[in-house]
Amino acid sequence: MSLQPYVDQKVLVVTADGRTLTGTLLSCDQLTNLVLQNTIERVIRPHEDPEDSEEVPHGLYLIRGENVAICGLLDEQMDGEIDWAKVKGSVIGGVKHAQKPGGANMFQEPVRRKKLRDDLWVKGHSPRNTRAAVSLNKNGQTVQYVLQF
Amino acid sequence: MLPLGLLNAAQGHPMLVELKNGETLNGHLISCDTWMNLTLKEVVQTSPDGDKFFRLPEVYVRGNNIKYLRVPDEIIDLVKDQQQNQPSSRARGGGALRGDHGGRGDRGRGGVRGARGRGRGRG
């Protein structure tokens, strides 16, 4: 498994910080360090942004492997037919999901609540932005919890 | 050509380095190693928001803090030239002839060269 078969072809790279880069893959190594030639960054703006999306040329790029999330072959024909300036889309987030300031920290919340959250997770509920009523049998008494994740 | 080969070839040239914290460093690459640790000179450091600038005579960057490097386009031609002028030992394929042992399995007992060695020793 390596990116060797993609060398000298056009690729699209999504980086760990959510940027989108296209260019010709000149070289790669075991750590997924990549060299891109004629690198173009695509800045896709959301619908509510009145400004057009952009393609910004950056030239020769060496991307550290740690910062690579996705590298895929580009269908040049299909890609060429798209006017990227007119494309709108939500911003791609980074690979790290930073804590909301003041939000519940999964790793600091009380064990019981974490356990409940894990149970919900198993039952297929999304652990984010979920309100759930849970009843537990505690020492013979039924206790209701309303949880907000 | 490996990505770190390009970095090696870029020594002495200007480049832009973006760090994981979003800071950028513009300067001339003095040296680099296999971990992508760098030393740059005559550096302009830009804060993550791009609103503050600092001039630093010399900077050492630990490789793990790097997000990407932007290097001048002509470096790619430079790498190709360098590799034509100094082919790697692997490309020449004559490791054993130049006196390195290569670590191959044909040394030692039962090997072709091993047998020859014993013969010479007795004679």
Q: What average pLDDT do the residues of chain A reach?
A: 80
Portion of residues in beta strands of chain B equals: 25-35%
C-alpha-based Rg of chain A, rounded: 22 Å
Point out poorly predicted stretches of chain A: 103-110, 120-130
Order of helices and strands of chain B: HEEEEEHHH
- The helicity of chain B comes to 25-40%
Helix and strand pattern of chain A:
EEEEEHHEE
Strand and helix map with partners:
The complex is a heterodimer of chains A (149) and B (123).
Chain A: E1 10-15, E2 20-28, E3 34-43, E4 54-63, E5 68-73, H1 76-80, H2 111-122, E6 131-138, E7 141-148
Antiparallel strand pairs in A: 1-2, 1-5, 2-3, 3-4, 6-7
Chain B: H1 3-9, E1 14-19, E2 24-32, E3 38-46, E4 53-61, E5 66-71, H2 75-85, H3 89-92, H4 112-122
Antiparallel strand pairs in B: 1-2, 1-5, 2-3, 3-4
Name the features.
heterodimer; A: 149 residues; mainly beta; five-stranded antiparallel beta sheet; B: five-stranded antiparallel beta sheet; 5 strands; 27% helix; mRNA splicing (chain B); nucleus (chain B); LSm4/Sm_D1/D3 (chain B)
3D architecture notes:
- The complex is a heterodimer of chains A (149) and B (123).
- In chain A, 11% of the residues lie in helices and 38% in strands.
- Chain A has 149 residues and is mainly β.
- Chain A has a five-stranded antiparallel β-sheet, with no helix packed on it. In chain A, strands 6-7 form a two-stranded antiparallel sheet.
- Chain A starts with 9 loop residues before the first strand and ends with a strand.
- The relative contact order of chain A is 0.15.
- Chain B is α+β, with helices and mostly antiparallel strands and 123 residues long.
- Chain B is 27% helix and 32% strand.
- Chain B is built from four helices and five strands.
- Chain B has helices spanning 3-9, 75-85, 89-92, 112-122; strands spanning 14-19, 24-32, 38-46, 53-61, 66-71.
- In chain B, strands 4-3-2-1-5 form a five-stranded antiparallel β-sheet, with no helix packed on it.
- In chain B, strand 3 (38-46) and strand 4 form a beta hairpin.
- The relative contact order of chain B is 0.15.
- Mean pLDDT of chain B is 81; it is low at 93-97, 101-105 and 110-123.
- Chain A binds chain B through residues 15-17, 26-29, 33-35, 37, 58-64, 66-67, and chain B through 1-7, 20, 36, 63-64, 66-73, 75-76.
